[in-house]
Amino acid sequence: ALTLRGGNKISIQHEEGYRNPTEVKMSQIVLPCHANHCGELSVGQLLKWMDSTACLSAERHAGCSCITASVDDIHFEHTIGVGKVVNIIAKVNRAFTSSMEVGILVTCEDLYTDRQWKVCHAFATFVARRTEAGKVRDNNQNIDTKPFDQNRFNIPCVRLLCTGTLHFFVLSSGECQEYQDAVPAERTRVESVELVLPPHANHQVSTFGGQIMAWMENVATIAACRLCNAHPTLRSIDMFHFRGPSHIGDRLVLKAIVNNAFKHSMEVGVCAEAYQGGEPLRHINSAFMTFEVLDSDRKARTLPRIRPEPVDGKRRYQEAIARKKIRLDRKYIISCKQTEVPLSVPWDPSNQMYLSYNNVSALKLMDTRNNWVLTSEKNKVRLYTLEENHMLCFKVEMHVSVPAEQTFHLLSDLRRRKEWDQHYEECEVIIQADEEDTLYRVATPSVSKGGKGKDFILLASRRKPCDARDPYLIALRSVTLPTHPPTEDYTRGEVLCAGFTIWEESSIVTKITYYNQATPGVLPYISTDIAGLSSGFYSAFSACSHFLEANKDSLAALPPSAL
């Protein structure tokens, strides 16, 4: 087990006595010659080590020479200082006919304190080279996977499906937004040439893939610097896609430009092309890298917006938004081990008080967090996100001209939510436990054409304020009931923590905040909003505002005892 900062541990050995036969380990101590100007390990050098380790793992499985086809899903969580030890583990996750996916885990070790922590992970695809007989060895054999490796074994196919959705999201992403004081994208353009020499070759006498990736990371960093006028930190790499080989004597032309800048991050597109003598340029590789700029407290700074170039620049701008959405899906859907402990808990009258208390407490805790990031705003409806402990939370905030108590009663009855929320297709009361707790079954439509919808069994706990300093609360979470098992018509979804806080700001003005701790069952409905591809949240909560305005008079006519 690896001890993380803060005392947490991660396991890198699944089972005593078991070792994946394709597993390869590499350990390197970081010397000054490996470091950048900040005294931290250069990402380019780390990519070289990762590529070498992954290649050895692929060749151990294939029994022949392998070449790098792509390296994907690299997420850098920490930097590595001089004097630290880098430990890299690579193993084949799944093999296909002539290609295989290799999972790579990088950890850092402090030799003086005996601590270790995760730095990044990545997935590389390798292709087996032809044998002397001119045939590709049949690689379509089962990897020796234990039960704990099955999630790794299945994910590569899902990742391929997710990658193919880029075109759909580009078509639905709308026009480029115009910002004042935006930086012209042309200012960030970088072009550099490298001559491939013998030290840059691998054991197959072609240009080392890790070296190409290092050169690409270098020009991408320069492009990011030109946007922010500061030293950026590389956070993730979407894909290094090798489209053709390069050889000794090639001139590699490396080009980079900032495709889009979001509030706290930017995407840089980079490509490598090769030529010899008077030959036309050959496309060798392309990648998309996400950078942040950190302040003195190691928090992400707000970045200037980008003004894209006409035609191709606008296309790259839109594609960057689409990739942001796909990254979100990969991070919080594909990477989730959905076969582990379920989020829902059993409900029965004996534990009602306990579950109700925990339901409300979880919502109160989410309401106290103060490090929310404003993602988008439209007509005073604000969408915030918060990433913490590998969980994504979001909240929507708005004001309405409806008294707080009337707002509370209108939103408390989930059966009426379908009047303003298109995601609520059906809603029925299962059990009315008491005045404060109700169990509902909610059915939602499919987010994909022809797919099955989802249904949820929700415990809704509502609380009135104890005094004027407290809000009204409507807390939601999933529970299980033996009388309502999953059915073939719907996929059972789960809600970990969601609900409304309703604050009375005056006798006629109320602030409403909706919270949700996103789960794999919920995220598909809101990921396009969080990625900036749509403003569905605005439409839903504008409809909510109209619903409250239209129905406030009907509640006002009722006596207080009826509310």
From TrEMBL:
Pathway: Lipid metabolism; fatty acid metabolism. This is Acyl-coenzyme A thioesterase 11. GO terms for cellular component: cytosol; mitochondrial matrix. Keywords: Cytoplasm, Fatty acid metabolism, Hydrolase, Lipid metabolism, Mitochondrion, Phosphoprotein, Repeat, Serine esterase, Transit peptide. It is an enzyme of class 3 (hydrolase). Its EC number is 3.1.2.2. The keyword Glycoprotein does not apply. Residues 20-132, 186-297 form the HotDog ACOT-type domain. Transmembrane segments: none annotated. PROSITE patterns: HOTDOG_ACOT (PS51770), START (PS50848).
